[in-house]
Amino acid sequence: MNPIEIIAQYWPRLLDGTLMTIKLTFLGALIAALVSPGFALIRTHAAPLAQAPLRLYISFMRGTPILAQLFLIFYGSGQFRPILQDWGLWTFFRDPFNCALLAFALNSTAYQTEILRGGIMGVPQGEIEAAKAIGMTRFKTLRRVVFPHAYRIAWPALGNEVILLMKASALASVVTVFDIMGRTRQIFSRTFDFSTYLWAALIYLCITAIFVLIWRQAERRLSRHIEAHHKPRVAAQPAKEPQA
Amino acid sequence: MFELFSYGDTGWGDEILRGLAITVQLAIVTLPVGLLLGFLAAFASMSRLGPLRFLGFGYTTIMRGLPEILTLFVVYNGVGLLLNMALRWWNPERGATDFSPFAAGVIALGMVFGAFAGEVLRGAFQSLDKGQTEAGRAIGMTQGQIFRRIQLPQLWRFALPGLGNLWINMLKDTALVSVIALDDLMRMTKVAVGVTKQPFTFYLLACLIYWVMCVLSELVLYWMERRANRGIRRAV
Amino acid sequence: MKLKNKLAAVLATTAIAASMATSAWAQSLRLGTEGAYPPFNYIEADGKIAGFDVEIGLELCKRMEVECEVVAQDWDGIIPGLLANKYDFIIASMFITEERQKQVDFTDPYYLAAMTHVVPVGSDITEFSNEALSGKVIGAQSGTTQADFIEATYPDADIRLYPTQDEVNLDMASGRIDMQVGDMLPMLDWTTKSDDGACCELAGDPITDPAFVGDGVGIAVRQEDDELREKLNAALMEIRADGTYQAINDKYFDIDVYTMQ
């Protein structure tokens, strides 16, 4: 095992892979974050029958392995190439990055929808009633009361979901995307040096650690108006009132 | 199209079912390994000894932070290497040994399950009502009796949802062993695709089979949760 | 409790495996191959591993008077598998290259090979140089001499590496990749004899640069198994001499792959 040699010779490729992983994860989570609030509202407010297709989709995404979903989209689209070409979609599906991104976005949307649903349901009824009482429209209530609170409740779970998405992104290597895992396997197939995998592990752990730090900082910022009230008054006792 | 799925030499039905059997076997064997590791991790994380807590923290952080496929590769390539190095040092005459992909799968998936389960169990332990434990001690129960009669049933109730989730995730993660040449459902599907050139059909079939397994698991877990929570009064 | 039994079984299996001694010379050997590389090695519909490589391998075993078991292993892990003692020799259309000789030893070549470019029928790719192919999508199986070739020769192209040859072919047929580089004989087999391969044809001159093609295709053994290597070489000579090689050769190919004529 020659860990120093490996990193010295192959660090550009690993860096390249790292950027690809971050790109995949970030874009996938972003797309899901844009779509999931709408879906979460459907889950919390729509009639059961209207929810059915959404629930089916969520159940499918959560009940099947990401690997299978990836293969389904990547190789499945190849099987339907003529049809896709007729619809002008082939250029999209031709690129493995797009296929992987689509799979991850679909998957993350399902999970984020459920997480947000939990957040929305956790908003105290009293706050919504208060908003109604002062005459806020439905939309304003959602924008000013429900969603900020829902996101705060769901924040840790959403952070978890992004980490899980990053771990899932390692599978993109199986459909020829050169992320960290893809580069690692490429290097291993030439050198057979085990320390390649250890470097990959280190990189993943570093990314996770940095992300967790940033996410927790963001959480603190989001909750700063709450902490100010709940932080116990420290040490400095106010001067005692002189005995009356 | 359905002749593709039939039994016998021309159909792929029997290969896929064989793969399914391996998948189920893998999940069932991994479960106890994962639970054992989970309990060990939970005890280590809650221990009074600093080094033990550090070990527990390190194990859970690393196993939860690494992609499962990386863990799988590391175990598959690394344990074989370690085993051979150890054996060669112990007895240079002997040749090296074999390390089956099934064992690699069990160990890798078990370690991942154990790390997540450790956190679930730790949370469950910390939710236990200390008063009941003290009551048990007050009437003279031994530590073992307290664990078995008082703590474990409650632990089970608290941990079940979390552990159930982990079981379903593990069921899906077994698909990864197809990448290290274990003939599970995913891999047999891949082989069928390679021959028939119909990826969408077969991968959709694989998805549906996993989906059914997960939904069945969810139903069983729902029933188990109902049973574990019988007699418990809820706040609402 | 069932749990206890299962756990005990897993622990016991690992312990037993760890205590089993297997030397490279015994009454039975294990032959490692990929099983995803027709016509040299592939898995038939009934699950058996077959192909030119497998038949030659089993024939050699017969000459060495040992029982051979055929073990399939993914290409990415095929050399680590040999080193980890999952099998005793690899006969899987593996080119003899310097890079590989750092890890394993090879027997004499049991057939010669070249690589070739493959493009869709009617493709506009006529020139095979780095400038002409810059930006084009080129695919190959990872961990092969083909992959080394395209990485070295066409660094400006969009290179895609796949775990198996089948997946490269699948994407070639669907048009996701513009070109692939593969071994001459399997590519010939694919483009002329299979339905999906009819999409494509061989193009350009055969790639015979020994820097990539090496000294031919050999059987890989662990570096300490000299006895096995010599026995394999002797058996190879035997089957060449008495015509068995020719018989197996003719089942699969129109030319003599040992000499490439």
Automatic annotation (TrEMBL), chain B:
Subcellular location(s) of the protein: Cell inner membrane; Cell membrane
Keywords (A to Z) from UniProt: Cell inner membrane, Cell membrane, Membrane, Transmembrane, Transmembrane helix, Transport
Gene3D superfamilies: MetI-like
Membrane topology: Multi-pass membrane protein
Transmembrane region(s): 20-44, 65-87, 99-121, 158-182, 202-224
GO cellular component: ATP-binding cassette (ABC) transporter complex
InterPro entries: AA_ABC_transptr_permease_3TM, ABC_transp_permease_HisMQ, MetI-like, MetI-like_sf
Cross-referenced PROSITE patterns: ABC_TM1
Family: Belongs to the binding-protein-dependent transport system permease family. HisMQ subfamily.
Name of the protein in question: Amino acid ABC transporter permease
